[in-house]
Amino acid sequence: MRVTDLRATPVAIADPPLRSAFGLHAPFALRTIVEVDTDEGVVGVAETYGGDAPLRALDAARALVIGRDAYRLTPLRVELDAARRPAEERPWEARGFAAPALFSAIEVACLDAIGRQTGRPVCDLLGGRVRDEIPFSAYLFFKHAGDDEWGEVMSAEALVGEARQMRERYGFGSLKVKGGVLEPDREVAAMRALREAFGPSVPLRLDPNAAWSVATSTRIAEELAGTLEYLEDPTPGLDGMAKVAERSPIPLATNMCVTAFEHLPAAVAKRSVSIVLSDHHMWGGMRATVELGRLCRVFGLGVSMHSNSHLGISLAAMTHVAAAVPELTYACDTHYPWQTDEVITGGKLRFHDGALPVPPGPGLGVELDRDALARLHERYRGTDLRYRDDVAEMRKTDPDWRPHVGDW
Ligand code: GKR
Ligand code: MG
User: Fold this and answer.
1) C-alpha–C-alpha distance, residues 127 and 320, integer Å
2) Using an 8 Å Cβ cutoff, are 369 and 173 in contact?
3) Closest CA to 12 of 308, 374, 333, 371
4) Would you give the DSSP letter of residue 369?
5) How many Å apart are CA 303 and CA 319, to the nearest integer?
6) Crossing angle, helix 184-198 and helix 156-170, to 10 degrees?
């Protein structure tokens, strides 16, 4: 089955004013919807990061993709591999959208096309599912008041309210808090308030996105022993994380200092982390994520799943890959409840008791809603946002704001 065309449509989706150590979410998050046409008449879809960089990369890679057999993608992966060519021979390499992300977008679309052609769900193409439904965690954010139904959430009390609402609506069994926003001890108090409100049967995680120093991270890890299931990226870098890990009674997880296969040897040697947050968008695709799971098992690492603001095509792909990774034993992250827009037919995918069943049907099991795509693309054209800049957004309300990077 030959690829006859590769299309990338940028979209802008509504995003509430969520806070993190990086700043503030802008009113729109950017995504790219990727489609491959094939000579068998089936069209495969994927969703990836948004803005200029993915568009440039996908455009530059078009000639390498068109004419290729959708079943034979390993040669493409090898061709895109940065280690094999000098930079001037890699026009598809874009800052913020490296070869693994580019390959992932193409792979997901091709797997969707193959699934549609063969009548099999994508998780079968990854070796088969080990679970029928995937547990997700509530992704709790401190946030400003905005044009949304959640209101301002800048205190422990408000965060408990947000968690309660998320649990009532979606049934989430675990709670992840995006930290690095309030002064660290106030975030400790917020975690204690969540524990108090929901009890020990609801696992809690905290992710300050590397805002804290080694000393703060170590102290807080000791203080929150018994309260957190894991502490995610408290401090920057493999060395900093290794220093915290040495004393931390809580396992450390990351989606910041181990984001590619080549980071694994040093992370294992230094014992920097216990859990790697997978993400097929970033790690080179769905098959690479299955390989990551197995490698993590070899090295005694746990596997969880990372998320950014995203639509239903990404969520469907995350669900298929999560179904096919036996080592993924933590509830996955997802920003999905924060997104009101959708680009698939039938509206938003629905969580039951905090879990999402693998979408039935061939391929990813979702259909592109072309009217919604056109609308969200028009919105992209109407904004001047072309990359994510949470610092700039934050400075619109607080001109002196600066991010904490390992110094809080
Ligand atoms: O959306 O603000 C956010 C998150 O902080 C996101 O950018 C991170 O990539 O969710 C992510 C994380 O776990 O670090
Ligand atoms: Mg994280």
Assistant:
1) 11
2) no
3) 374
4) -
5) 15
6) 40
Question: Distance, CA 251 to ligand 1 centroid (Å)?
Answer: 19
- Say whether pLDDT at 81 is over 90: no
Distance CA 204, CA 231 (A): 9
Residue 306 annotated to the active site: yes
Strand order in 252-254's β-sheet? 138-141, 175-178, 204-207, 230-232, 252-254, 275-278, 302-305
Which residue's CA is minimally distant from atom 7 of ligand 1?
308
194 Cα distance to chain centroid:
24
Pairing assessment for the beta strands 252-254 and 28-38 based on DSSP bridges: unpaired
Backbone φ, ψ for residue 78 (5° rounding): -65, -40
141 within 8 A of 178, measured Cβ to Cβ: yes
Largest CA distance in the chain: 59
Q: Write b or e for each residue in 331-340: b if 16 or more Cβ atoms lie within 10 A of its Cβ, otherwise e.
A: bbbbbbbbbe
> Model confidence over 8-51: pLDDT tens digits?
999 999 999 999 999 999 999 999 999 999 999 999 999 999 99
pLDDT at 94: 67
User: How many Å apart are CA 219 and CA 353, to the nearest integer?
Assistant: 35
Which residues contact residue 272 at a Cβ distance below 8 angstroms, ignoring those fewer than 6 apart? 238, 239, 241, 242, 245, 252, 254, 257, 258, 266
For residue 161, count other CB atoms closer than 10 A to its CB.
15
In tens, the pLDDT along 89-119 reads 777 776 678 899 999 999 999 999 999 999 9
The C-alpha R_g of the chain, in whole angstroms, comes to 20
Instruction: Write the single-letter amino acid at 330.
Output: Y
Q: Tokens 């960089």 sit at which residue?
A: 53
Backbone conformation region of residue 119, classed left if phi is above 0, alpha if psi is from -120 to 50, else beta: left
Whether the predicted pLDDT of 88 surpasses 90:
no
* Mutate which of 24, 25, 30, 308 for ligand 1 pocket (most atoms within 8 A of beta carbon): 308
Is 178 catalytic? The answer is yes
- Lining ligand 1 with CB less than 6 A are 18, 20, 22, 178, 207, 209, 255, 306-309
Q: Enumerate domains of the chain plus CATH numbers.
A: 3-121+369-380 (3.30.390.10), 125-357 (3.20.20.120)
Q: How far apart are CA 322 and CA 318, in angstroms?
A: 6
Give residue 46's pLDDT.
98
